[in-house]
Design brief:
By secondary structure, the chain is α+β, with helices and mostly antiparallel strands. It contains seven helices and 31 strands. It has three domains: 126 residues, Cyclophilin (Beta Barrel); 151 residues, Sandwich (Jelly Rolls); 125 residues, Cyclophilin-like (Cyclophilin).
């Protein structure tokens, strides 16, 4: 289904209904690796302002002055080895082997787009604002990913790169950073529609995502609670994967200029309908309901869960990019976030009958609740001590306020201790992977996760608990329950 090349590994995702692990192992083992090829790409000069937050720390780690660090970074020749993490992120090796520094113990929640950084033996440039653990040396105004170009990624494997110090005259015009959309967003007030009157936090269009795009550095993305998205669409007679609005922690309202049929699923945000005359009635959860012209629907903060899904009969008129209307917050791909003042247009697509008899929604966790998530160990379980494996399963992990669609950041009383302290060369990561930075506090990857990462993955959430993981609120607690022992065979042969 997908391949994620990395420094020394290849992540192979496959459909168990079509093939088996044994068949894949046999096919991969029979490949003749005696024939090799090398791609000779283009040469780029990247202007850099060496003003990064970690410039002094990196110089100290290497035993150099800042001037020496900048000089050696600009004198080296870099080759793009592979791409990953996010669209346009290139992992570059250097002919100066001394440019080798560990990743940060505490990854940053946000690294600005254009940041030039070092991580282990690699140099890279962050294409968008994103979390990350690399050491920041400076920034470049060049845009690493732009879908309006014939080649969206500026750098591809085999390309040669030279960094140039902007303090010595290297310049470039900084392009704007924005969500990549095929055409202007289908949210304007020229034709009327559903006027967004409140959006405490930006809401997002989501569907079932865009699988099979890892070769372009694009993760699947899509709704965090896929079951809730499908249920919302089935309620109003839409195809299962139609785009709906993902609303986090409520605080969302809109007024309609026409009769519409809607459904809200997922987190049970209290929903009320206000008529033009001021009459207020409640709206049901998990069932279709109607609004008349002039009615306003308001969703408040949900008492449990985090994300509600709003579907409209006939779907929303929203742009699709690479086969999906999902908004990927890490890659900045898809429709722009929905904010107050936007007008949402119904698409009036073909539909089937509404279904008012959908199953009762499951209870979702509240702040302070403890949720048990099933996990399968691997692929880097052996990078941790036996004590850490016990701690991982025995103690509660609290969901912190730094969590988002990229990942759930966890905090435990006792951090996990690694048995292997060396730097891990970046490897492919999956939805549900639990990565452990040097600080020992895990990060659970969600739908907008990076495709590759340089911290070891101790295990991955079982597929049947992925929707639940996306609904655990800040302040909730997680216990991990192992359902599969660490499989050395998987680590050594399947990856």
């Amino acid at each position: 289904m997908d391949l994620v090349p990395a420094a020394r590994t290849l992540l192979v995702s496959f459909d168990r209904l079509i093939t088996s692990r044994a068949a894949l192992v046999q096919a991969i083992s029979s490949i003749d690796f005696s024939f090799r090829s090398t791609r000779q790409g283009n040469t780029f000069e990247i202007p850099v302002a060496y003003d990064g937050e970690d410039l002094n720390d990196v110089a100290d780690l290497l035993g150099w002055s800042v001037e020496d660090l900048v000089r050696r970074h600009t004198e080296a020749t870099y080759t793009v080895a592979f791409t990953g993490f996010a669209p346009g992120f290139a992992y570059m090796t250097s002919d100066d082997t001394t440019l080798d520094v560990p990743r940060r113990k505490n990854p940053r929640v946000r690294i600005p787009a254009g940041s030039v950084a070092l991580g282990g033996k690699f140099s890279g440039i962050y294409p968008t604002d994103s979390p990350g653990g690399w050491q920041i040396l400076g920034h470049t105004p060049l845009k690493m990913w732009d879908m309006s170009r014939s080649r969206a990624a500026l750098l591809e494997p085999g390309d040669r790169v030279y960094f140039r110090d902007m303090a010595k005259g290297s310049t470039a015009s900084p392009p704007p950073m924005q969500f990549q959309s095929a055409t202007p967003p289908s949210m304007s007030n020229t034709c009327g529609g559903l006027l967004v009157t409140r959006a405490d936090r930006p809401a997002l269009f989501q569907d079932l995502g865009r699988p099979g795009r890892a070769g372009q550095g694009i993760s699947e993305s899509g709704a965090l609670d896929r079951t809730a998205l499908v249920e919302a669409n089935l309620c109003v007679g839409n195809p299962r994967g139609s785009a709906a609005i993902e609303i986090t922690y409520g605080g969302f309202a809109f007024k309609t200029d026409r009769p519409v049929t809607l459904a809200v699923t997922g987190a049970p945000a209290p929903a009320t309908i206000r008529s033009p005359e001021g009459k207020i009635v409640g709206a049901p959860l998990g069932q279709p309901f109607a609004l008349d012209t002039g009615d306003e629907l308001t969703l408040e903060f949900p008492p449990e869960g985090t994300r509600s899904y709003l579907a409209i009969r006939g779907g929303f008129a929203v742009d699709r990019l690479l086969g999906s209307a999902a908004t990927d917050t890490l890659a900045k791909v898809g429709p722009a976030p929905i904010v107050k003042g936007d007008v949402l247009m119904p698409a009036n697509q073909p539909v089937s009958a509404v279904d008012p008899a959908r199953p009762q929604p499951m209870k979702l966790p509240k702040e302070g609740d403890t949720v048990t998530l099933d996990v399968a160990f691997g692929p880097r379980t052996d990078w941790f001590t036996e004590k850490s494996l016990f701690t991982f399963l025995a103690q509660e992990w609290q969901v912190t306020a730094e969590s988002n669609r990229v990942g759930v950041r966890l905090a435990g009383a006792e951090p996990l201790e690694r048995a292997v302290t060396s730097e891990l060369l970046s490897e492919g990561t999956l939805l549900g992977a639990i990565q452990v930075p040097h600080n020992g506090q895990p990060v659970l990857f969600l739908a907008d996760h990076p495709l590759t990462g340089g911290y070891p993955v101790i295990g991955s959430i079982a597929r049947h608990h992925l929707d639940l993981a996306g609904q655990i609120p800040i302040g909730g607690k997680i216990r991990f329950n192992t359902v599969s022992a660490f499989d050395q065979f998987i680590r050594d042969t399947d990856r």
